[in-house]
Amino acid sequence: MPPPDFSPSAEQNKHPILDKLLALLPDQGAALEVASGTGQHAAWFARHLPGWTWQPSDQQPQGFASIQHHVAQAGVPNVLAPRLLDVCTETWLLGDPATGELPCFDMIFCANMLHIAPWEACAGLMHGAARHLAPQGRLITYGPYFENDVPTTQSNLDFDASLRQRNPAWGVRWRETVAQEAAQAGLQLQQRHPMPANNLLLVWQRVSG
Questions:
Q1: How many Cα atoms sit within 13 Å of 123 on the Cβ side?
Q2: What are phi and psi of 129, to 5 degrees?
Q3: Residue 193 burial by CB count (10 A; 0-12/13-18/19+): exposed, middle or buried?
Q4: Are the C-beta atoms of residues 124 and 89 closer than 8 Å to each other?
Q5: Which of 16, 24, 62, 69 could hold 4 in an S-S bridge, CB 3.0 to 4.6 Å?
Q6: Strands 105-111 and 187-195, how do they pair?
Q7: What's the average model confidence in pLDDT over 49-61?
Q8: Which residues pair with 55 in a beta bridge?
Q9: Residue 18 class from Cβ within 10 Å (0-12 exposed, 13-18 middle, 19+ buried)?
Q10: What pLDDT is stored for residue 1 in this prediction?
Q11: Rounded-to-integer distance, Cα 16 and Cα 155, Å
C-alpha cells in the first residue's frame, strides 16, 4: 500500500477544531465529512469522538486509500468506508431502496473546501446539507473568510491572490455571501468562532418554522 497523503495544515488545525467540536457536540451522533481529503481529520476526530459514527467522503476516489490508511493507523472502529460525493450533484448519497428515505446526519463537517472549489460548490454544499441533516443537525464549516466590517489580514489577501492565480474560479469567500447561499437552502448561521491562522469555524442550522 502506498504511503498516505499528508496535509501539514490539517495536522495543525485538527487540534483547535477538535476543541470546538467537543464543546459543540453531544456525546453520540452520526457525522458526514464532505471533502475528507487525506483522511487526517476523519481519523483524529473519530478517535476523540468515540460515540460518533464518521462517514468520510470525497470527490476524488484516488484519495480513498489515504483515508483508509490514516483510519487504520489510528485504530478507530467508528469510521465507515469512504464514499464518493460531489457536492454539485443533486444526489449525494442514495436513499433507502424500500422507502427512498435519504440518510440523515447529526453533523455535516466540511473544512477548507469552499476556497478551492468553484462558487457553485457553495450552493451545492448548502442545499445538500439541508437535504441530509437531521432535524436538529448542524453543518459546520471551517476555513478562511472575508467579512464585512472585519479588517482583512494581509495573509488572507495574499492567500486569495495565490488561489486566483492558480485557478480564477477559486478564492477566499465572503462570509455574508456564503450566508446568502445558505439562506436559499434554508440554513442560517448560528455561531461564528474565530480560529487560529485567520480562519473561522461556522455553525449552520436549518431555519425553524
A1: 7
A2: -65, -40
A3: middle
A4: yes
A5: 69
A6: unpaired
A7: 97
A8: 32
A9: middle
A10: 52
A11: 19
